[in-house]
Write a structure and sequence with these properties.
single chain, 182 residues, alpha/beta, three-stranded parallel beta sheet, 16% strand
Length: 182
């Protein structure tokens, strides 16, 4: 799950998608792969231990441990999460080192659904590195906040990288009450 910039609701969306699938009795892992500004753990206050960010994705990427060593199960939500862990000084380099594909294979082997919260596309290339691992991505946008120039620039960047979103989630859509069916 990614967005053009920050503040568009990608972490909120990723967290809620994970919760929804977990409620359907799917084995779900939410991975906080925003190695620059991790935020997913904030959506699970009260469900995570206080030391939840002590070890995480960054430790897996440097080779300190395996993914399953950093996964935290939240009984109340029937959901697993892998937090970012310590914020590394070199997120792009860590994602390029080759351990990303191993980590993704481990996640796919152990879960029905894996949802990854990533860094914004227009700020850094981290999400592109993840998407190049054959990971379908959802693009989240907050309506009426991104200007057309940013959207066009992002579309060109994705096309040049030969990447195409699996879907688009538009936040802040104001749907009139009369349009709902009852």
């Amino acid at each position: 799950v990614c967005s053009a910039g920050s503040g568009e609701g990608k972490t909120f969306t990723a967290s809620n998608l994970a919760k929804s699938f977990a409620q359907e009795n799917k084995k779900v892992l939410l991975m906080d792969c925003d190695l620059r500004k991790p935020d997913a753990h904030h959506n699970f206050k009260g469900n995570l231990p206080t030391n939840a960010r002590q070890r995480g994705i960054s430790n897996v990427l440097v080779g300190d441990c395996k993914l399953m060593d950093v996964v935290i199960h939240m009984d109340k939500l029937n959901l697993d999460i892998a937090t970012t862990g310590p914020v590394p000084p070199n997120p792009n380099e860590l994602l390029s080192m080759g351990r990303l594909s191993e980590m993704l294979e481990e996640a796919k082997a152990n879960y029905d659904i894996v949802i990854m919260d990533t860094s914004p596309l227009m700020l850094v290339s981290d999400a592109l590195l993840i998407a190049h691992q054959n990971v379908p991505f959802l693009l989240v946008t907050r309506l009426f906040t991104d200007n057309r120039h940013v959207i066009r620039q992002m579309a060109m960047q994705l096309k040049q990288a030969n990447l195409f979103p699996a879907g688009l989630i538009a936040n802040c859509a104001d749907v009139p009450r009369a349009s709902s069916t009852g």
